[in-house]
Amino acid sequence: MTHVLIVIAHPDPASFNHALAFATAEALRAAGHEVTISDLAAEGFRADLSPADMTERADPARFHVQAEQANAARTGTYAPDIAREQARVAQADAVILQFPIWWGGPPALLKGWIDRVLSYGFGYVDGRRFDTGLFKGRRAMISVTTGGTPERFSEQGVYGPIDPLLMPIRKLALEYMGFEVEPLQVAYAVSRISEPERQKHIDRLIAAACAMSSRPSHRSDAWKTALDDVPEGAWARRG
Questions:
Q1: How far apart are CA 93 and CA 108, in angstroms?
Q2: Is the dihedral of CA 97, 100, 102, 105 positive or negative?
Q3: Fewer CB in 10 Å around end: N or C, the chain?
Q4: Could you please report the per-residue DSSP string of 14-75?
């Protein structure tokens, strides 16, 4: 049995992103897996990284992000929405990020989730990145919807290939943390396609998610001791 976290970053509960996520969750549960859904908009998740992320500050005079995140990780003083999401990530063998492509990238909700949840002292520390990442042994998948057609996202299309748009999430967030990232899942031109075509996208995502969840994974607790070798206050001395 695999525990899968599905993160949805779309403000409309009637969106196709929600349809993809909930159908996938239902299929995974039917296959015997555990599924947690983080519906960021529905749960009131904040997108902006700020001093409000911590209930206590290491340095009230200056908001140095990594120093404050390290302190919050050490002292358990993250804001409730961050603490909730970090607990869900820690429990997951696999993570699926479900979101639309807006203006050539993810919605602010998804970017904010990465900024605030995959934070220093939890998602990464000095010397623990990529092959030595804290979440090595776990799997992840990116599933997106677009308004544009496949032709527009082709080499010759006006938008160009979609993969480079998602590199910051795939490589510089998920792979950075050690996740093994599965092939990208894309539902193109969702506002223009028929219901049978939408169902094909749902079926493809379900098949990919079930295949991912059936493969071996290793969920370590490396994140719990991530800061043990980092001197307290190390980031406070940096720019």
A1: 25
A2: positive
A3: C
A4: TSHHHHHHHHHHHHHHHTT-EEEEEETTTTT------GGGBSS-S-TT---HHHHHHHHHHH
Q: Give 1-50 pLDDT, tens digit per residue.
A: 899 999 999 999 999 999 999 999 999 999 999 999 999 999 999 999 99
Contact partners, residue 70, CB within 8 Å, separation at least 6:
58, 120, 121, 227, 230, 232, 234, 235
CA distance 138 to 135: 6
The 10 Å Cβ neighbour count of residue 86 is: 20
Q: Is 140 helix (H, G, I), strand (E, B) or coil?
A: strand
Q: What pLDDT score does 38 carry?
A: 98
pLDDT 10s digits, 102-116: 999 999 999 999 999
Closest to 175 measured CA to CA, from 97, 66, 59: 97
Assigned token pair, 200: 């094909």
The alpha carbon of residue 26 and the mean position of all alpha carbons in its chain are separated, in whole angstroms, by 20
